[in-house]
UniProtKB/TrEMBL annotation:
This is Translation initiation factor eIF-5A family protein. PANTHER family: RAN GTPASE-ACTIVATING PROTEIN 1. It comes from Tetrahymena thermophila (strain SB210). One of its GO terms (molecular function) is small GTPase binding. InterPro entries: Leu-rich_rpt, LRR_dom_sf, RanGap. The keyword Repeat applies. It holds the Pfam family LRR_6. SUPFAM superfamilies: RNI-like.
């Protein structure tokens, strides 16, 4: 699978002026190396305004999430992001890096983020929601975090972070 993800990375490298991308490679075994390769290619697609990225259930850990988060952060023109990374093992460190990437996407208006079942604790969840406060134009948020290890502190910080999303008109929050 790593040769395949490397080829995808090379293909994305050549798409520097891409504005819309719908990319889904769920339920495979790309792991951290595959996620890194995809992230490296995606990091060159800096003109994206619409991105649907599905990399769920792929045995991705912290290292893969780091590269993906960095790549998303380079997409400064994103207005619509649908990002599904559920069922991996990114943990707090990976969630923090995704949050840091999202904090650079200040033009976002629509975000659907599913980070369920990723061994995320209070700190990772808090970082992601705090980052959303930088998305000053965010009006629609669908945020799924169920199946993680988030306690009272994390839930409190999620509430505080969401209170900074002052332009929200639609919120779907799932933490069963």
């Amino acid at each position: 699978m790593h040769d395949g993800s490397s080829t995808i990375s090379t293909a994305l490298d050549n798409c520097k002026f891409l504005t819309n991308l719908n990319f889904s490679i769920c339920r495979n075994k790309i792991g951290d190396i595959g996620a890194k390769n995809i992230g490296l290619g995606l990091s060159n697609c800096t003109h994206l305004t619409n991105l649907e990225l599905g990399i769920s259930e792929n045995q991705i850990g912290y290292d893969g999430a780091l590269t993906i988060g960095t790549a998303i952060g380079k997409c400064k023109f994103l207005t619509n992001l649908k990002f599904s990374i559920f069922g991996n093992k990114i943990g707090d460190k990976g969630a923090k890096n995704i949050g840091l990437g999202l904090s650079n996407c200040s033009q976002l208006t629509n975000l659907k983020l599913d980070i369920s079942s990723n061994q995320i604790c209070d700190d990772g969840a808090s970082t992601i929601v705090t980052a959303l406060g930088n998305c000053k134009f965010l009006t629609n948020l669908n945020f799924s975090i169920q199946g993680n290890k988030i306690g009272d502190k994390g839930v409190k910080n999620i509430g505080l972070g969401l209170s900074n999303c002052t332009q929200l008109t639609n919120l779907v929050f799932s933490s069963e």
